[in-house]
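S2.1 Query sequence (NIBAN protein)
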Amino acid sequence: SVSEPAQKCCTENIQPFLTSILEELMGPVSSGFTEVHSLFDKEVNEIIQDFQKTNDMARLKENVDQLMTLPFDSVKMEPCYLKVNLLQELLQDLKSRFKVYHIDFVIQRTQNFMQELMENAVYTFEQLFSPSRQADLAKVATTIEKVKLRVLK
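Output structure tokens follow.
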């Protein structure tokens, strides 16, 4: 007895708006994940540049170890998280129109996914590139670049 009125309500009052709502919400979400991508790229590029200047394998290992802490570095991850905070304004409109509650939870979960993505990226990078396995110093920077591109893919 409830199914038919519920389907009618969804078909008339919600479904026509879903596409536009998703497009609107995906803007901040996409820009947040793009920021994660850019941050990882920037950090690995700094490791490459530092190694090219020093050719120091011990320092390279320290830099890679430090990269592993990136997902938990709130200062460096902050720009990524700020992009998603724009959802606060967008979801306020949805809250009044569609009774969407727990806006903070949606933002927090999105930020958690961003942190998880960064964790996966640095873990994969570390697994594919281990400074201790590199024998030829001349090829280290090239290897780091190749691994970075593979992770970003």
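The longest helix spans residues 15-54. The chain is about 80% helix and 0% strand.
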